[in-house]
Design goal:
It contains seven helices and six strands. Helix 2 crosses helix 3. Helix content is 34%, strand content 15%. It folds into two domains: 151 residues, Ribosomal protein L4/L1 (Ribosomal Protein L4, Chain: A, 3-Layer(aba) Sandwich), CATH 3.40.1370; 44 residues, no CATH class. The longest helix has 17 residues. Part of the 50S ribosomal subunit. One of its GO terms (cellular component) is ribosome. This is Large ribosomal subunit protein uL4. Keywords: Ribonucleoprotein, Ribosomal protein, RNA-binding, rRNA-binding.
Length: 206
């Protein structure tokens, strides 16, 4: 089992914790991690782009000039793609970019991302993370104590003070155990979680 230090919000080491290898010590599957990231980004796309083809552009029903004898190249419509104001060749239409990943693939990708974070020493465990009031300055102070700047903070349910204190910080994102994902784990430099959250993650994903 991987053994990592446990810190308090002042940045002082207060103990250690053993992490379950079934979640935090698996062999990293780069292929599944890549698929998970591509899947999330694709699923976030709206897919609403649209341009008109020659059949959808208004006008152009009349042949602009007769077929022969004018000296011009033959033309059937003023809305052909080569004309100004004409339709677009192979125009984009609204579509769904999402694709499915199996549940086992998603879990394996998430475990790989967590294991990589632990291996790279980018996973910080706190004994607890509580704030007496909603205060961005207090949250920033905790990050400075931990020497962290860009972080994904995984919180337990009901921790509103910490969640609301972090929402105005550009390089910080808060998440719950059931909303963590591979993309965010890779995007942020550090993953911060409390001992209670670690236990919850191991319970859900082990």
């Amino acid at each position: 089992m991987a053994n990592v230090s446990v810190y308090d919000i002042n940045g002082k080491e207060v103990g250690t914790i053993d992490l379950n290898d079934a979640v935090f010590g698996v062999e990293v599957n780069e292929h599944l991690v890549h698929r998970a990231v591509v899947s999330q980004l694709a699923n976030n796309r709206q897919g609403t782009q649209k341009a008109k083809t020659r059949s959808e552009v208004r006008g152009g029903g009349r042949k602009p000039w007769r077929q022969k004898g004018t000296g011009h190249a033959r033309q059937g419509s003023t809305r052909s793609p080569q004309w100004t104001g004409g339709g677009v060749v192979f125009a984009p239409t609204p579509r769904d970019y999402s694709f499915k990943m199996n549940k086992k693939e998603k879990r394996a990708a998430l475990k790989s991302a967590l294991s990589q974070a632990v291996a790279d020493k980018k996973f910080i465990v706190l004994d607890e993370f509580q704030l007496d009031e909603i205060k961005t300055k207090a949250f920033v102070g905790v990050l400075k104590n931990l020497e962290v700047n860009k972080a994904l903070v995984v919180l337990e349910d009901g921790n509103k003070n910490v969640e609301l204190s972090a929402r105005n910080i550009a390089d910080v994102k808060t998440a719950k155990v059931n909303t963590i994902n591979v993309y965010d784990i890779l995007k942020y430099n550090t993953v911060i979680a409390t001992k209670a959250v670690v236990a919850n993650i191991e319970e859900v994903y082990a």
